[in-house]
């Protein structure tokens, strides 16, 4: 059952006769976000929301919608992005603080070394800040992973109720989460693994200057595909939890 759930969500884009064109549009928007930060990604999120709402509120089938009504895509994509970040935001803020604490003493030592033309060591006070920063990064990473996981059912609840306020109705979406926990866990694990792998591949190819442009194009296509399949995975998990609560 679980493998069928995963395989259905991963393969559905290719059943559309125009899948190549639709995924290419998504990839172009991802590429555009490198020039115009964030804004093109709201359209991608809005496109994913259409997939989500069909699965949750419609016939339950994952299908690639048309790229139309761009105003709707942008407006609702922004709302979905907002909902998806709420519970991960505390961890992300701590991550930034931790990295600043780690980089600050390193940056200071680097400047001191340049100024004196001799290699300088990090003073005890700086080492203390660096150590605390590293600890904060570890805690923040854990909080971000947990927060991102909780954001999935919360964002699906927002899509199902067509209201950002639904994200804060924790008791409602938590009840759906606990009725289909392994579907959410398997979906999140797959998305996390795929995202990590893409990051590693992109980093390796990008530092090799000869492959930086092909790497950017390949990753954009992969992100477009991952966006639609992620939408289908979490929406299907949410619907499974919703249907379980109804039968009970």
Please explain how this structure is put together:
The protein has helices at 2-11, 19-32, 39-57, 70-85, 89-116, 124-161, 170-177, 181-207, 212-247. α1 crosses α9 (212-247), α2 (19-32) runs antiparallel to α3 and α8 (181-207) runs antiparallel to α9. The two termini are 19 Å apart. The protein has 248 residues and is an all-alpha fold.
Topology of helices and strands:
Elements: H1 2-11, H2 19-32, H3 39-57, H4 70-85, H5 89-116, H6 124-161, H7 170-177, H8 181-207, H9 212-247
Helix pairs in contact: 1-9, 2-3, 2-9, 3-4, 3-9, 4-6, 5-6, 6-7, 8-9
Tally of individual domains? 1
Q: Which word captures the global form?
A: globular
Mean pLDDT: 88
Oligomer: single chain
Low-pLDDT residue intervals, each spanning 5 or more residues? none
Helix/strand/pairing category: mainly alpha
Number of strands: 0
Alpha-carbon distance between the two ends: 19 Å
User: How many helices does DSSP assign?
Assistant: 9
Proportion of residues in helical segments: over 70%
Task: Write the element-wise H/E pattern from the N-terminal end onward.
Answer: HHHHHHHHH
Rg on CA atoms, Å: 21 Å
> Main beta sheet: strand number and arrangement?
none
How much strand content do the residues show?
Answer: under 5%
